[in-house]
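Weekly structure sync, notes
Attendees: PL (lead), two postdocs, one rotation student
Agenda item 3: pending single-chain targets
PL asked that the sequence for the first pending target be pasted directly into the notes so everyone works from the same version. It is reproduced below exactly as submitted, 427 residues in total.
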Amino acid sequence: MPARAIVVHYHELWLKGRNRWFFLNRLTDNLQRTLEDLPIERIDRPGDRILVWLREGADPAPALARIERVLGVAYCAPVLAVERDIEAIRRAAWQELSGEEFETFAVRARRSDKSFPMRSLEMERDVGAYLLARLGEAGRHARVHLAAPDRLCRIEISPGPALVYARRIPGPGGLPAKTGGKMVCLLSGGFDSAVAAYRMMKRGAHLIFAHFYGTGAQPGESSLHVARALVRQLVPYQLTARLHLIPFEPIQREIVRFAPEDFRVLLYRRMMMRIAAAIAERSGALGIVTGDSLGQVASQTLENMVAVDRAVATSVFRPLAGDDKQEILAVARRIGTYDISAEPFHDCCPVFLPRSPALRATAADLDRAESRLDVPALVRMGLDHAVMERYRFVRGEVERTVKSVDSAAPHGDAPQCAPAAERAGEH
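Predicted structure, written out during the meeting:
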């Protein structure tokens, strides 16, 4: 009787040369952690694929739902694993297709183990003829269509068993989680920063999140629940995360009190960068990630972004710099953050917004605008009153724990009073 398994394919890891085994080992470890509470017998790596063996009678659906979010996976598929015998392969192919509805079909074979006597094209013709005959016996008038079949039966001959399957599920691709170093991501709650986080996680970066919030909104309008929900949605991709919640309104008030109005938003962003850089230094992170898109709002002109970056020595990464809003929203819908970011909440207290924000600031302009501020003290204020929450994806659920809570830290609803570069167009 055929054994049930899930085949996991990867693409980009083949480009890693001598480092490929490091990435494959991390991908295998991530799969094991993701599936740890499910009825999995073992995980093997025959040839250029990963096989997740299910226990007898186990439903593959829960495992497939988790695997399709594991970074580094090109696609996965529930397979029948059979003896490397053409008769067994024929029967498995019929078992895979007999319950499906289709008018056209085709067979694709891949023989990575050349010790199997039949060539790929021979297998395709043999199994295709067998299926056509069985379909005719069953009174079904399906035909072969090689270019664009309704159903495609795949056969893989690896160093292990023969694998037969007719359905595959795309994965996120990219590189396995935690293979690209640590970074701090500024998470506003809007569409852009969550998509930027996902983009960098796909490149193997492990993100620490920083969310800046304010006070004064009505109950239910807080940005905190949005930030936490976004982290919960993103954590399964990288398995663990830390979220720093930083009270920003006291810092904002100092900027409003002493700095020119047209530079306020840019000074807010410089202060956020400095606090994020301090978190990065404490955490061993090597960069800062933002959701900026070039020219999307006033604070994201090229001149303004360069002027803001000059406040920190830490490298700043903007994975969405060349994307437009529709491209960003399409990714947000695909990864499940769109509805979360679309929830109503206060991005920025309107009283603090400039009436006419600067479009072409220089680093020297912003240095002069900050001359009356005690910048180191404001950075310490943000760090000293921050709360750090830990998130873990365990047994299919996201767990949250709070490490430390200051007396000024958030316990309930509070709005985001940082610049709303992702949700509004006036900055």
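Discussion points:
- The chain is about 35% helix and 20% strand.
- The longest strand covers residues 75-82.
Action: rotation student to compare against the earlier draft before next sync.
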